[in-house]
Hints:
356 residues
Amino acid sequence: MSEKQAPFAERSSFWMRGGGPSADVIVSTRVRLARNHKNVPFPPEMAKEHAEQVLSLARDLNDCLRRDSEGEYVFDFWPLSELDETDRWVLVEKHLVSPQLVKTAALSGVILRSDDAVSIMINEEDHFRIQCLFPGLNLTHSRELAQQVDHILHEVVNCAFDEQLGYLTTCPTNLGTGMRSSVMAHLPGLVMLNRLEDVISGLSEIGATVRGLYGEGTESRGDLFQISNRITLGQSESEICANLQAVIGEIVRKERSAREEAYGRRRDELEDKVFRAYGILTNARMIETKEAMRLLSALKLGRDLNIVTHVSQDLFSQMMIRMRPALIQSRAGTSLDPRQRDIRRASLIRNALLDS
């Protein structure tokens, strides 16, 4: 483990606590703002001294965030070079940093609020990427918090901004507000009825995009999908969130309708799927991540349809992250091979279910 004590694996992130509006379909909401320093080359072109300059600004920003929080929350700046590989991947698994940031660990960092509701990636695709994460469908609160942090960022950083184009970013799709709003949606009903492709096609036509569990280039696990706006130019931040809110509202309606239809048409099959998942998860002694995600997804669906009412509402949000490889290894405090992780994963889920 790293010399600097990292609490990432032990603490429960705010967005993982479950609940929130439309929590049966929307697991979490994220609003991200991309910002760059006007007088520093953007990350794809910057040298080591430029990266160090941005990291120095990040320390100043962290000090300002601590001051303005008035003790309500603690902010900490973590250079990724000071964290070991396991801790870095714990941050990825908890959706606090991207896999891309880990690949440039020597020149990157992250600022975290003590409840992980605020995460600021340093020197990823852009110099600063503010992320605010909430449970359930919470676009308004996520946006408001991101704007508060952005206001403090502007006290420290002379942001690259053009009167016509708005905020300048490495990727042209982020020009304008630099905002990307997204939700993590649980869509087993649409998957079960083979209607997801039609929904994805429709989203593309109205300027939204669908990605896997950990963003672009990753696959879906446990019927989880990230849905976000694709264009930031020509729209205000409130318009982006309002448009996505309307889109997500329609997806929530379609998913709920699909679940009811599936339960009405295939009740025995659906109940068998749910109880088989419960039986395996409460008895398995070894289980891989992919299988665990599939079974937890079925169990969440069963809980949301009141098939298994004794299972905790927030179990899915907690377990989908806590049973991931780096988190299991970090909590063990030692290196584990895949078989050892599978054993610990099965025990973790089994005990959580028996205690719920």
